[in-house]
Amino acid sequence: MPIIPKNNEEKNKKVVCTLNDLEKRKVVEHNALIQSVAKMQKTALKMFELAVSCIDTENLPENNTVYLSKKELFSFFEVSSSSKHSQFKEAIEFMQKQAYFKIKSNKALGIEYESIVPIPYVKWNDYNDEVTIQFSEHIMPYLINLKAEFTQYKISELQKLNSKYSIILYRWLSMNYNQYEHYSVKGGRRAEQVEAYRNPSITVKELREITDTIKDYQKMSHFTTWVLEKPLEEINAHTSFNVTYEKVKKGRSIDSIVFHIEKKRKADDNSYKLEDKTYQEDKARKAETEDQLVLEAMDSPYTKLLMEHFLLSYLDLM
Which distant-in-sequence residues (6+ apart) come within 8 Å of 72 by Cβ? Predict the structure, then answer.
């Protein structure tokens, strides 16, 4: 079932998102939201991400509202117990009463802070399968105004992640790797800048901020276990990334973390070419050769005569 109706006659009809096309659905968010502090539990964060995957930025949902299937929602969270309805209710109530994003943006006059409850309205009942989710008008700009500085990834990548830190880290790694892929193909960055996106660095202070662990896991060994090692085990096991990391010291203390991201290869995946130096060098040589041939052709006396002939013919017609 398509997420958004394609013709105008059906545009105003409610379409319930199901998991039938989960592999095709993508979450698209502004980078400021990716780097924000998610003051919420794992279930609320995953529910938010699932709802975002139902938004089509080319056909915006009416009243910022999307519709999910309750049955498929339980399936996504792999909830099968008899208490699933009460668990769902508790997650919804927590998301609305306590969960919010703390977003920090750089403005001309200084840093601006926003605290946004992303989903203030949810409706469901006992007599059908539909769940209505309405986004806050304040969160929508971070989900639809995406001309620049945005990240996208498949919602299916998050399905098996069972830690809040895994989800947050995966989103941040995706943001960096997306930029690596973009600038590797489009250009516009120096080679070392492009490589830095594939091997991103973050200070421990910044990592504590985005994972909301400033006051938690004060021992570095505990922080390493619960915010780095276990989340990366999940990411490597259940997503398209293979990630390793190294600690960078400043004096005796761990100052920052450098991640090394690799994309798992698939049979029909040509992304390996982005990391193949021989391929990239050969591509650059071919482009340089093609440019040289064009310049030589333009400098040819035959080309000049032909251009003069066309110019005279154009002037005669005027």
Answer: 17, 18, 19
User: Which tens digits make up the pLDDT trace of 31-67?
Assistant: 999 999 999 888 889 989 999 999 988 888 999 999 9
Entry pTM: 0.78
Edge to edge, the sheet with strand 241-250 lists 201-203, 253-263, 241-250
Contact between 150 and 141 (Cβ < 8 Å): no
Range 93-104 average pLDDT:
85
94: Cβ contacts below 8 Å, ≥ 6 apart = 40, 41, 43, 44
Helix, coil or strand: residue 266: coil
**What does the alpha-carbon distance between residue 189 and residue 180 come to, in Å, rounded to a whole number?**
10
- CATH class label, 1-159: mainly alpha
Q: In sequence order, what are the beta bridge partners of 39?
A: 100
- The CATH architecture assigned to 164-275 reads Orthogonal Bundle (1.10)
Relative to beta strand 253-263, strand 241-250 is antiparallel
User: In this predicted structure, what is the pLDDT of residue 117?
Assistant: 92
Quote the strand ranges of 52-99, DSSP E.
Answer: 65-69
State the pLDDT at residue 1.
Answer: 34
Distance, in Å, from the CA atom of 301 to the CA atom of 297, rounded to the nearest integer, reads 9
Q: How far apart are CA 34 and CA 174, in angstroms?
A: 9
Q: Answer yes or no: are the C-beta atoms of 241 and 264 closer than 8 Å.
A: yes
Q: Are 130 and 69 in contact (CB under 8 A)?
A: yes
What sections of the chain are H helices per DSSP? 31-34, 42-52, 70-76, 84-97, 141-144, 164-186, 191-198, 204-210, 220-223, 230-238, 272-275, 277-299, 301-317
From 80-89, 97-106, 147-156, the region with the lowest mean pLDDT: 80-89
